[in-house]
Each structure stands twice: as structure tokens, then as C-alpha cells.
């Protein structure tokens, strides 16, 4: 690639890179991080081999910023600096508007890895699978980093304090109705699994335009489950299902579908959506 063309392509991504670095290390250090990313791009033997330049640059800038944060707080976490010359698997291109400047001050409460996981995921929408190699953690551990960061930003206690299942289900329903993706993640265990029987899947597909969640036979992981329910469940109501808090869709005459919840230590670890009328008829449902 011609150097002039390469510089032009980099310039096109520069505003996004400054936004990412700015949220991670502040505006002044962001300029240094973005400039370093340009130098590393310019040193590449074959820039044309980079299939996703936006993702490659985002990953490089994130790693440079993480090392800057760790240099500021050398006692914040145990891992050594990551080798950031090669970003490894290229991240998907992302875009997001800059968030309020007050957030930058709040982010100073977080450890470097928490800050990076929270900002890249919650602010810029990068999947945890792409953030995990940057912070040198498993995907599940990276979700927990973002979760801890999210709670600390909101001034909430750590997730160890257990809430009653009824409170968790009520909060889940409110977050789903409001489309509050972050709040849903706070209520879901990272390894949560959503399962739905064939009848429930068919009904949800038929009623997707009327607010029903987009179900599949099995949906693993907090991210995926939160995306199923965000902005949905408008007609669901809280009940006791065989004595356990849950949700149902119901008409005046019958229960159409049930949402069973398994709650452990204040987090939803499993959900089951039941639409089979025979199963529903054999279940005790008490409206609360």
C-alpha cells in the first residue's frame, strides 16, 4: 500500500481511536496512544494483509492504553504488560458517540483491566471475546471485570451480596422492559443458559413484532441472553411457578407461556421458557 494511502486510511479512523483512548486514559494521553498506534501501523511489513484495519487499530490502541494505565498504577493488578506490537486476532470495527466527561472521573475508581473491559464493552460495544485477549483473561473473567467496573461506576456494592429471587426476577423484568442492557447483565451470571421448548420458540417467533423475545432452543452466555430480552417482555407478569418466582405471559383465560428462573447468590444462572400446554397445565402458577 502506498504510504500516502495508508496515512489517509489511518486518518479516517483517527477520531474513533481518539474516542476510545480518551475514555481509557484521558484526552492528553490519548494523543500519545493514537500516535504510537500510527507508528506501529507504519512499521508493518504488509499493511494490506490487515483485513480489518479499524479493528486492528482499536486493539492496538486499547493495549497501549492498558499499559499506560498499568504504568500509572503498578500495584493495581498482577499481570505484566502485554506484548502490544501484534494485536493478534483483529477486533471488529466499532463506533460509538463520546459519553459525558463526568464518566472519565468516575472511571478512575476502576483497576486498569476493569476500566478497559467496561469501556470497550459498555461504551463502544466490543464483544467480550475480543476484549479477553487484550486483558489476558478468559472470556468469563473478562465479563466479570466489566461487571465489577459497571457496579463501581454506578456506586453499587459488589455482586456478592445476595438478593432474594423475587427481587432478582422483578429487577430482570424491569430491565427487560426498559431495554437496559447493562442492568440485565448485572442480574445474569456470565455462564447463564436460556432454554426454550419448541412451542415457546414457535410462539415467540410468531409474536416477535408484538414484543415477544427472540427465542432459540438454547442461548448461552449473559451477553446473548440480555440481547434476547432487552426491550422485550412488555406483557410478562410476575408469578410463583411451583412456589418459585418467575414470569408468565397470560390471557384472562390461561397461561400461554412460563419463564422459570434459577437464581444463585443473587444472579440468574439458568432460565427456561415453557410453552407446552401440557407442561403448563401440570404446573402450579400463582399470580402475585
From TrEMBL:
Keyword Transcription regulation set for record = yes
User: Which keywords has UniProt assigned to this entry?
Assistant: Sigma factor, Transcription, Transcription regulation
Q: Which SUPFAM superfamilies match?
A: NTF2-like, Sigma2 domain of RNA polymerase sigma factors, Sigma3 and sigma4 domains of RNA polymerase sigma factors
Residue stretches making up the RNA polymerase sigma factor 70 region 4 type domain: 103-152
Comp. bias (Acidic residues):
77-88
Q: Where is this region: Disordered?
A: 72-91
State the Gene Ontology terms under molecular function. DNA binding; sigma factor activity
User: Which GO terms fall under biological process for this protein?
Assistant: DNA-templated transcription initiation
Record-linked InterPro entries? ECF_Sigma-70_Domain, NTF2-like_dom_sf, RNA_pol_sigma-70_dom, RNA_pol_sigma70_r2, RNA_pol_sigma70_r4_t2, RNA_pol_sigma_r2, RNA_pol_sigma_r3/r4-like, WH-like_DNA-bd_sf
Say if the entry is tagged with keyword Transcription.
yes
- Origin: domain of life: Bacteria
* Assembly behavior: Interacts transiently with the RNA polymerase catalytic core formed by RpoA, RpoB, RpoC and RpoZ (2 alpha, 1 beta, 1 beta' and 1 omega subunit) to form the RNA polymerase holoenzyme that can initiate transcription.
- What family, per the record? Belongs to the sigma-70 factor family. ECF subfamily.
Question: What's the protein here called?
Answer: RNA polymerase sigma-70 factor (ECF subfamily)
Q: Which organism is it from?
A: Actinomycetospora corticicola
Amino acid at each position: 500500500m502506498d504510504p500516502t494511502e495508508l496515512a489517509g486510511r489511518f486518518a479516517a479512523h483517527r477520531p474513533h481511536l481518539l474516542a476510545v483512548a480518551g475514555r481509557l486514559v484521558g484526552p492528553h494521553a490519548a494523543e500519545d496512544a493514537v500516535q504510537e498506534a500510527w507508528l506501529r501501523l507504519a512499521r508493518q511489513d504488509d499493511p494490506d494483509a490487515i483485513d480489518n484495519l479499524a479493528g486492528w487499530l482499536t486493539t492496538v490502541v486499547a493495549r497501549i492504553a492498558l499499559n499506560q494505565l498499568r504504568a500509572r498504577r503498578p500495584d493495581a493488578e498482577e499481570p505484566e504488560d502485554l506484548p502490544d506490537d501484534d494485536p493478534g486476532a483483529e477486533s471488529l470495527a466499532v463506533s460509538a458517540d463520546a459519553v459525558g466527561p463526568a464518566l472519565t472521573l468516575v472511571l478512575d475508581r476502576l483497576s486498569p483491566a476493569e476500566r478497559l473491559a467496561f469501556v470497550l464493552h459498555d461504551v463502544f460495544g466490543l464483544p467480550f471475546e475480543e476484549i479477553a485477549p487484550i486483558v489476558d483473561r478468559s472470556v468469563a473473567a473478562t465479563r466479570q471485570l466489566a461487571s465489577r467496573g459497571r457496579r463501581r461506576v454506578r456506586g453499587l456494592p459488589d455482586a456478592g451480596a445476595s438478593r432474594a429471587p423475587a427481587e432478582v426476577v422483578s429487577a430482570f423484568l424491569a430491565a427487560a422492559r426498559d431495554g437496559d442492557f447493562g442492568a440485565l447483565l448485572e442480574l445474569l451470571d456470565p455462564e447463564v443458559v436460556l432454554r426454550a421448548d419448541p412451542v415457546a420458540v414457535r410462539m415467540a417467533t410468531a409474536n416477535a413484532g408484538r414484543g415477544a423475545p427472540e427465542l432459540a432452543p438454547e442461548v448461552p452466555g449473559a451477553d446473548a441472553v440480555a440481547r434476547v430480552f432487552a426491550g422485550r417482555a412488555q406483557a410478562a407478569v410476575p408469578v410463583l411457578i411451583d412456589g418459585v418466582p418467575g414470569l408468565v405471559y397470560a390471557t384472562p383465560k390461561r397461561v400461554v407461556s412460563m419463564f422459570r428462573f434459577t437464581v444463585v447468590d443473587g444472579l440468574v444462572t439458568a432460565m427456561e421458557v415453557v410453552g407446552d400446554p401440557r407442561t403448563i397445565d401440570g404446573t402450579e402458577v400463582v399470580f402475585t
